[in-house]
Amino acid sequence: MNIKFKKLNKTIVKCKKCPRLTNFIKKISLEKRKQNFNEKYWGKPVTGFGDVNARLMIIGLAPAAHGGTRTGRAFTGDKSGNFLFKSLFSVKISNQAFSENKDDGLKLKSTYITNILKCVPPGDKPMNKELSQCSNYFIKEIDYLKKNKSDCNTR
Ligand code: SF4
């Protein structure tokens, strides 16, 4: 992770620009799901992750309530992640066929994974102003990846 992404991700994790979503994350993280009751939920916005020199970007709408919001990593700890990482492993994009938590050793080759919205919305339905607010982060991610790519090509 380079310095620009580190700075951006630090800002995202602390972001509380959408009170409805910040409160919803808090509620989920306190109430928890039955099978994860003994776990401490991440309970904050979820950043993108992967190879900052990526040629491929995989985009979701938002973290899952008991997936990314619980584990702190996009597409991690839920059914869509299970499917995604089996597929990525089969084409040698990821070094393992599962994504369970931030410390599970997962590495991605030339691929960056993120969500447009960094906080889970109630009913998976974001409001327009939330999407528009958060898309500023998403646009920065795209810009940084493009910039890294062009830096690599001119080396
Ligand atoms: S959705 Fe995005 S802009 Fe809104 S609080 Fe979460 S990180 Fe901030």
Question: Can you give a write-up of this model?
Answer:
By secondary structure, the protein is mainly α. It has one domain (3-154): 3-Layer(aba) Sandwich (Uracil-DNA Glycosylase, subunit E), CATH 3.40.470.10. 44% of the residues lie in helices and 8% in strands. It has five helices and three strands. A three-stranded mixed β-sheet has the order 1-3-2, with no helix packed on it. Helix 1 (3-14) packs antiparallel against helix 5. The longest helix has 27 residues, at 128-154. It is globular. Bound molecules: iron/sulfur cluster (SF4). Iron/sulfur cluster binds next to helix 2 and helix 5. Iron/sulfur cluster binds at residues 12, 15-18, 21-22, 45, 117-119, 130, 133-134.
Task: Give the tags.
Uracil-DNA Glycosylase, subunit E; 5 helices; binds iron/sulfur cluster; mainly alpha; 44% helix; 155 residues; single chain; 3-stranded mixed beta sheet
CATH class type: Alpha Beta
Number of strands: 3
Q: Based on the coordinates given, report the CATH architecture.
A: 3-Layer(aba) Sandwich
Range of helix content: 40-55%
Query: What are the segments in which pLDDT stays under 50 over at least 5 consecutive residues?
Result: none
Kindly estimate the percentage of residues that lie in beta strands according to DSSP.
5-15%
Order of helices and strands: HHEEHHEH
Mean pLDDT: 95
Short structural summary:
By secondary structure, the chain is mostly helical.
